[in-house]
Backbone:
């Protein structure tokens, strides 16, 4: 019974940030979105709360990796895709407005 409880708790915690996806977001942010280094760092930090698939999807999107983005779209739920899609608009606005 304890093992089952631990599994449930562990699955409720967001996936740990993938440093590779987050670094891609950080590095491509300025080039693709024409934002400051501080805003891009803010976006990458906020992206750490997303699932690994969402992070990978955003990284594929900003690098224009259509094949990877398409593969990830097939693996993600509509809710995950919606959250990932809204993330860039919301975080870009929030991070350029100071937070």
Residues:
């Amino acid at each position: 019974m304890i093992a089952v409880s631990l599994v449930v708790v562990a699955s409720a915690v967001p996936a740990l940030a993938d440093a590779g996806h987050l670094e891609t977001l950080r590095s491509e942010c300025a080039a693709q979105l024409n934002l400051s280094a501080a805003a891009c760092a803010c976006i990458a930090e906020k992206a750490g709360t997303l699932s690994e698939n969402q992070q990978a999807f955003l990284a594929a999107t900003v690098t224009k990796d259509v094949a990877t983005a398409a593969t990830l779209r097939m693996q993600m739920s509509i809710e995950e895709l919606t959250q990932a899609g809204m993330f860039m608009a919301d975080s870009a606005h929030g991070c350029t407005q100071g937070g």
Observations:
- DSSP finds six helices and no strands in the chain.
